[in-house]
Design goal:
By secondary structure, the protein is an alpha+beta fold. The protein has 17 helices and seven strands. Keywords: DNA-binding, Transcription, Transcription regulation.
Length: 334
Amino acid sequence: MSKHFRVSGLLPAKLEELSLSPAAVLRHAELPATFFEQEKIYVTTDEMFALWRAIEALSPDPLVGIKIGNEDRIERYDPIAIASLYTRNFTDAMERAARYKQLTCPEKIELAATADTYTVRFVWMLARDTEPSVFTDMCFAWVQAIGRRGTGRALTPLRVDYARPPAHREELETHFGCPVRFNAKHNLIVFRRSDIERPFVTHNADLLAAISPQLEKELVIQNAGANAGELVKLTIKRVLAGRRPDIRDIAREIGQSVRTLQRRLAASGLTYQQVMENARRELAHHYLRHSALELNETAYLLGYEDANSFFRAFHRWEGMPPGRWRKLHRERVA
Protein backbone atom coordinates (compact mmCIF):
# COMPACT_ATOMS: atom_id res chain seq x y z
CA MET A 1 0.00 0.00 0.00
CA SER A 2 1.26 3.46 -0.90
CA LYS A 3 2.19 5.69 2.04
CA HIS A 4 1.30 8.82 0.09
CA PHE A 5 -1.83 10.18 -1.56
CA ARG A 6 -1.75 11.00 -5.25
CA VAL A 7 -3.42 14.36 -5.86
CA SER A 8 -5.07 14.80 -9.23
CA GLY A 9 -3.52 17.48 -11.42
CA LEU A 10 -7.08 18.37 -12.45
CA LEU A 11 -7.98 19.56 -8.95
CA PRO A 12 -6.96 23.23 -9.56
CA ALA A 13 -9.38 23.48 -12.50
CA LYS A 14 -12.15 21.99 -10.38
CA LEU A 15 -11.44 24.47 -7.58
CA GLU A 16 -11.61 27.40 -10.00
CA GLU A 17 -14.96 26.14 -11.33
CA LEU A 18 -16.20 26.29 -7.73
CA SER A 19 -14.91 29.88 -7.33
CA LEU A 20 -11.94 28.87 -5.19
CA SER A 21 -8.45 30.21 -5.81
CA PRO A 22 -5.94 27.32 -5.93
CA ALA A 23 -3.21 29.71 -4.74
CA ALA A 24 -5.32 30.77 -1.73
CA VAL A 25 -6.05 27.14 -0.89
CA LEU A 26 -2.33 26.33 -0.94
CA ARG A 27 -1.49 29.31 1.27
CA HIS A 28 -4.13 28.34 3.79
CA ALA A 29 -2.89 24.73 3.79
CA GLU A 30 0.72 25.95 4.14
CA LEU A 31 1.75 24.03 1.03
CA PRO A 32 4.30 25.30 -1.56
CA ALA A 33 3.07 27.79 -4.15
CA THR A 34 4.38 25.45 -6.88
CA PHE A 35 2.45 22.49 -5.46
CA PHE A 36 0.08 22.10 -8.42
CA GLU A 37 2.88 22.58 -10.95
CA GLN A 38 4.40 19.17 -10.21
CA GLU A 39 4.07 16.47 -12.85
CA LYS A 40 3.02 13.96 -10.19
CA ILE A 41 1.73 15.27 -6.87
CA TYR A 42 2.25 13.08 -3.82
CA VAL A 43 1.39 14.14 -0.26
CA THR A 44 1.33 12.63 3.21
CA THR A 45 -1.95 12.03 5.02
CA ASP A 46 -1.35 15.15 7.13
CA GLU A 47 -0.77 17.27 4.00
CA MET A 48 -3.84 15.80 2.31
CA PHE A 49 -5.98 16.62 5.33
CA ALA A 50 -4.51 20.15 5.43
CA LEU A 51 -5.42 20.63 1.76
CA TRP A 52 -9.04 19.60 2.34
CA ARG A 53 -9.35 21.65 5.51
CA ALA A 54 -8.24 24.66 3.50
CA ILE A 55 -10.91 23.94 0.88
CA GLU A 56 -13.49 23.65 3.66
CA ALA A 57 -12.36 26.86 5.34
CA LEU A 58 -12.29 29.00 2.18
CA SER A 59 -15.44 27.80 0.46
CA PRO A 60 -18.80 29.30 1.50
CA ASP A 61 -20.54 26.30 -0.12
CA PRO A 62 -21.44 23.58 2.43
CA LEU A 63 -21.56 21.04 -0.44
CA VAL A 64 -18.13 21.84 -1.88
CA GLY A 65 -16.80 18.35 -1.09
CA ILE A 66 -19.80 16.73 -2.73
CA LYS A 67 -19.41 18.84 -5.86
CA ILE A 68 -15.76 17.83 -6.17
CA GLY A 69 -16.58 14.14 -5.73
CA ASN A 70 -19.64 14.22 -8.00
CA GLU A 71 -17.68 14.55 -11.24
CA ASP A 72 -19.80 14.46 -14.44
CA ARG A 73 -16.96 14.60 -16.95
CA ILE A 74 -15.64 11.10 -17.51
CA GLU A 75 -12.41 12.44 -19.04
CA ARG A 76 -11.52 13.59 -15.53
CA TYR A 77 -11.92 10.11 -14.05
CA ASP A 78 -8.77 8.38 -12.85
CA PRO A 79 -7.97 4.81 -14.00
CA ILE A 80 -9.48 3.30 -10.85
CA ALA A 81 -12.83 5.05 -11.42
CA ILE A 82 -12.81 4.09 -15.11
CA ALA A 83 -12.03 0.44 -14.29
CA SER A 84 -14.86 0.51 -11.75
CA LEU A 85 -17.35 1.74 -14.37
CA TYR A 86 -16.43 -1.05 -16.79
CA THR A 87 -17.24 -3.80 -14.27
CA ARG A 88 -20.35 -5.99 -14.21
CA ASN A 89 -22.21 -4.31 -11.35
CA PHE A 90 -21.94 -1.93 -8.39
CA THR A 91 -20.61 -4.66 -6.08
CA ASP A 92 -17.80 -5.54 -8.49
CA ALA A 93 -17.01 -1.83 -8.89
CA MET A 94 -16.59 -1.28 -5.15
CA GLU A 95 -14.48 -4.41 -4.73
CA ARG A 96 -12.12 -3.35 -7.51
CA ALA A 97 -11.92 0.19 -6.14
CA ALA A 98 -11.02 -1.22 -2.71
CA ARG A 99 -8.31 -3.40 -4.25
CA TYR A 100 -6.73 -0.75 -6.47
CA LYS A 101 -6.92 2.12 -3.97
CA GLN A 102 -3.82 0.73 -2.28
CA LEU A 103 -1.89 1.76 -5.42
CA THR A 104 -2.55 5.44 -4.90
CA CYS A 105 -3.02 6.14 -1.19
CA PRO A 106 -2.95 4.81 2.40
CA GLU A 107 -6.71 4.47 2.35
CA LYS A 108 -8.86 1.43 2.99
CA ILE A 109 -12.38 0.95 1.65
CA GLU A 110 -14.26 -1.36 3.99
CA LEU A 111 -17.22 -3.18 2.46
CA ALA A 112 -19.82 -5.00 4.54
CA ALA A 113 -22.87 -6.84 3.20
CA THR A 114 -25.96 -8.19 4.92
CA ALA A 115 -29.07 -9.77 3.43
CA ASP A 116 -30.58 -6.30 2.88
CA THR A 117 -27.78 -3.73 3.02
CA TYR A 118 -24.33 -2.95 1.62
CA THR A 119 -22.13 -0.56 3.59
CA VAL A 120 -19.13 1.40 2.32
CA ARG A 121 -16.69 2.98 4.75
CA PHE A 122 -13.41 4.84 4.12
CA VAL A 123 -10.58 4.39 6.64
CA TRP A 124 -7.39 6.48 6.57
CA MET A 125 -4.62 4.07 7.58
CA LEU A 126 -1.98 6.63 8.60
CA ALA A 127 -4.26 9.34 9.98
CA ARG A 128 -3.27 11.02 13.23
CA ASP A 129 -6.34 13.22 13.30
CA THR A 130 -9.99 13.11 12.27
CA GLU A 131 -10.52 13.46 8.53
CA PRO A 132 -11.96 16.77 7.25
CA SER A 133 -15.73 16.74 6.77
CA VAL A 134 -15.51 17.81 3.12
CA PHE A 135 -13.11 14.94 2.42
CA THR A 136 -15.70 12.46 3.71
CA ASP A 137 -18.37 14.23 1.62
CA MET A 138 -16.20 13.92 -1.47
CA CYS A 139 -15.65 10.18 -0.94
CA PHE A 140 -19.35 9.47 -0.43
CA ALA A 141 -20.29 11.57 -3.47
CA TRP A 142 -17.69 9.66 -5.52
CA VAL A 143 -19.24 6.32 -4.53
CA GLN A 144 -22.75 7.49 -5.37
CA ALA A 145 -21.57 8.97 -8.69
CA ILE A 146 -20.01 5.64 -9.72
CA GLY A 147 -23.27 3.88 -8.85
CA ARG A 148 -25.45 6.36 -10.72
CA ARG A 149 -23.34 6.52 -13.85
CA GLY A 150 -22.81 2.76 -13.89
CA THR A 151 -26.44 1.75 -13.41
CA GLY A 152 -27.87 4.63 -15.41
CA ARG A 153 -30.32 5.25 -12.58
CA ALA A 154 -30.86 7.97 -9.98
CA LEU A 155 -29.43 5.65 -7.35
CA THR A 156 -29.97 6.76 -3.76
CA PRO A 157 -28.44 5.27 -0.60
CA LEU A 158 -30.58 3.83 2.17
CA ARG A 159 -28.90 6.28 4.56
CA VAL A 160 -25.69 8.22 5.21
CA ASP A 161 -24.07 8.28 8.66
CA TYR A 162 -21.68 10.99 9.82
CA ALA A 163 -19.60 10.94 12.98
CA ARG A 164 -19.60 14.75 13.06
CA PRO A 165 -22.18 17.00 14.78
CA PRO A 166 -25.30 18.03 12.85
CA ALA A 167 -24.77 20.61 10.11
CA HIS A 168 -26.42 21.30 6.72
CA ARG A 169 -28.74 18.31 7.08
CA GLU A 170 -31.26 19.59 4.53
CA GLU A 171 -28.65 20.19 1.81
CA LEU A 172 -27.03 16.79 2.36
CA GLU A 173 -30.34 14.91 2.36
CA THR A 174 -31.37 16.68 -0.82
CA HIS A 175 -28.17 15.60 -2.56
CA PHE A 176 -28.06 12.00 -1.37
CA GLY A 177 -31.83 11.56 -1.51
CA CYS A 178 -31.95 9.71 1.81
CA PRO A 179 -31.90 10.31 5.57
CA VAL A 180 -28.63 11.62 7.00
CA ARG A 181 -27.67 10.78 10.59
CA PHE A 182 -25.12 12.68 12.66
CA ASN A 183 -23.08 11.83 15.77
CA ALA A 184 -22.79 8.25 14.48
CA LYS A 185 -19.92 5.98 15.47
CA HIS A 186 -18.54 5.88 11.93
CA ASN A 187 -18.82 7.68 8.63
CA LEU A 188 -20.81 5.26 6.45
CA ILE A 189 -22.81 5.27 3.25
CA VAL A 190 -25.33 2.44 3.24
CA PHE A 191 -27.09 1.09 0.12
CA ARG A 192 -29.88 -1.40 -0.40
CA ARG A 193 -28.50 -4.80 -1.34
CA SER A 194 -30.87 -4.87 -4.33
CA ASP A 195 -29.32 -1.63 -5.67
CA ILE A 196 -25.72 -2.70 -5.19
CA GLU A 197 -26.35 -5.81 -7.31
CA ARG A 198 -27.78 -3.87 -10.25
CA PRO A 199 -25.88 -4.49 -13.52
CA PHE A 200 -23.87 -1.65 -14.99
CA VAL A 201 -24.93 -0.28 -18.35
CA THR A 202 -21.31 0.91 -18.69
CA HIS A 203 -19.97 -2.66 -18.41
CA ASN A 204 -17.35 -3.27 -21.10
CA ALA A 205 -15.43 -6.52 -20.76
CA ASP A 206 -12.95 -5.65 -23.52
CA LEU A 207 -11.98 -2.28 -22.06
CA LEU A 208 -11.83 -3.75 -18.56
CA ALA A 209 -9.49 -6.45 -19.87
CA ALA A 210 -7.28 -3.70 -21.31
CA ILE A 211 -7.11 -1.65 -18.09
CA SER A 212 -7.07 -4.23 -15.30
CA PRO A 213 -3.82 -6.04 -16.25
CA GLN A 214 -1.87 -2.79 -15.96
CA LEU A 215 -3.35 -2.04 -12.54
CA GLU A 216 -2.65 -5.60 -11.42
CA LYS A 217 0.91 -5.34 -12.75
CA GLU A 218 1.48 -2.09 -10.84
CA LEU A 219 0.11 -3.76 -7.74
CA VAL A 220 2.54 -6.67 -8.08
CA ILE A 221 5.49 -4.34 -8.75
CA GLN A 222 4.62 -2.15 -5.78
CA ASN A 223 4.24 -5.14 -3.51
CA ALA A 224 7.42 -6.83 -4.75
CA GLY A 225 9.51 -3.74 -4.05
CA ALA A 226 8.08 -3.05 -0.62
CA ASN A 227 9.57 -4.10 2.68
CA ALA A 228 8.01 -7.51 3.30
CA GLY A 229 7.14 -6.86 6.94
CA GLU A 230 5.60 -3.44 6.27
CA LEU A 231 3.76 -4.70 3.20
CA VAL A 232 2.21 -7.63 5.07
CA LYS A 233 1.37 -5.41 8.05
CA LEU A 234 -0.39 -2.80 5.92
CA THR A 235 -2.29 -5.50 4.04
CA ILE A 236 -3.39 -7.12 7.30
CA LYS A 237 -4.63 -3.74 8.54
CA ARG A 238 -6.59 -3.26 5.33
CA VAL A 239 -8.42 -6.60 5.54
CA LEU A 240 -8.56 -7.01 9.32
CA ALA A 241 -12.16 -6.08 10.09
CA GLY A 242 -14.06 -8.66 12.06
CA ARG A 243 -11.93 -11.54 10.84
CA ARG A 244 -8.42 -12.86 11.22
CA PRO A 245 -6.81 -13.36 7.81
CA ASP A 246 -4.28 -16.15 7.47
CA ILE A 247 -1.15 -15.99 5.34
CA ARG A 248 -2.99 -17.45 2.35
CA ASP A 249 -5.45 -14.54 2.41
CA ILE A 250 -2.63 -11.98 2.58
CA ALA A 251 -0.58 -13.68 -0.13
CA ARG A 252 -3.62 -13.58 -2.42
CA GLU A 253 -4.16 -9.87 -1.69
CA ILE A 254 -0.52 -9.08 -2.40
CA GLY A 255 -0.37 -11.24 -5.53
CA GLN A 256 2.38 -13.62 -4.39
CA SER A 257 2.54 -17.29 -3.50
CA VAL A 258 2.48 -18.30 0.16
CA ARG A 259 5.96 -19.78 -0.18
CA THR A 260 7.39 -16.56 -1.67
CA LEU A 261 5.81 -14.47 1.05
CA GLN A 262 7.09 -16.75 3.80
CA ARG A 263 10.58 -16.61 2.29
CA ARG A 264 10.53 -12.80 2.15
CA LEU A 265 9.36 -12.55 5.75
CA ALA A 266 12.03 -15.01 6.88
CA ALA A 267 14.69 -12.95 5.08
CA SER A 268 13.57 -10.00 7.22
CA GLY A 269 13.77 -12.11 10.38
CA LEU A 270 9.99 -12.18 10.79
CA THR A 271 7.15 -14.66 10.98
CA TYR A 272 3.61 -14.07 9.85
CA GLN A 273 2.38 -14.34 13.44
CA GLN A 274 4.80 -11.61 14.57
CA VAL A 275 3.59 -9.26 11.83
CA MET A 276 -0.04 -10.03 12.67
CA GLU A 277 0.67 -9.19 16.30
CA ASN A 278 2.34 -5.90 15.34
CA ALA A 279 -0.54 -4.94 13.04
CA ARG A 280 -3.11 -5.62 15.76
CA ARG A 281 -1.11 -3.68 18.33
CA GLU A 282 -0.76 -0.61 16.09
CA LEU A 283 -4.42 -0.70 15.10
CA ALA A 284 -5.43 -1.09 18.75
CA HIS A 285 -3.47 2.07 19.58
CA HIS A 286 -5.13 3.90 16.69
CA TYR A 287 -8.67 2.89 17.68
CA LEU A 288 -8.10 3.70 21.36
CA ARG A 289 -6.58 7.10 20.60
CA HIS A 290 -8.80 8.33 17.80
CA SER A 291 -12.21 6.71 18.17
CA ALA A 292 -15.01 6.33 20.67
CA LEU A 293 -15.38 2.62 19.93
CA GLU A 294 -16.39 0.40 22.80
CA LEU A 295 -13.64 -2.04 23.80
CA ASN A 296 -15.64 -5.05 22.62
CA GLU A 297 -16.09 -3.35 19.22
CA THR A 298 -12.34 -2.75 19.05
CA ALA A 299 -11.77 -6.43 19.84
CA TYR A 300 -14.09 -7.40 16.99
CA LEU A 301 -12.36 -5.11 14.48
CA LEU A 302 -9.00 -6.59 15.46
CA GLY A 303 -10.25 -10.09 14.70
CA TYR A 304 -10.41 -11.44 18.26
CA GLU A 305 -13.02 -14.05 19.11
CA ASP A 306 -14.05 -12.18 22.25
CA ALA A 307 -13.16 -9.13 24.32
CA ASN A 308 -11.25 -11.16 26.93
CA SER A 309 -8.80 -12.39 24.30
CA PHE A 310 -8.15 -8.79 23.28
CA PHE A 311 -7.73 -7.68 26.92
CA ARG A 312 -5.15 -10.41 27.56
CA ALA A 313 -3.21 -9.53 24.41
CA PHE A 314 -3.25 -5.80 25.18
CA HIS A 315 -2.09 -6.40 28.76
CA ARG A 316 0.80 -8.45 27.36
CA TRP A 317 1.75 -5.58 25.04
CA GLU A 318 1.37 -2.61 27.39
CA GLY A 319 1.24 -4.03 30.91
CA MET A 320 -2.23 -2.59 31.55
CA PRO A 321 -5.85 -3.00 30.35
CA PRO A 322 -6.89 -1.13 27.18
CA GLY A 323 -9.42 1.03 29.04
CA ARG A 324 -6.75 2.33 31.40
CA TRP A 325 -4.30 2.87 28.52
CA ARG A 326 -6.91 4.93 26.64
CA LYS A 327 -7.63 7.05 29.74
CA LEU A 328 -3.95 7.71 30.45
CA HIS A 329 -3.25 8.64 26.85
CA ARG A 330 -6.17 11.05 26.62
CA GLU A 331 -5.25 12.66 29.95
CA ARG A 332 -1.70 13.12 28.68
CA VAL A 333 -2.94 14.72 25.44
CA ALA A 334 -5.31 16.99 27.36
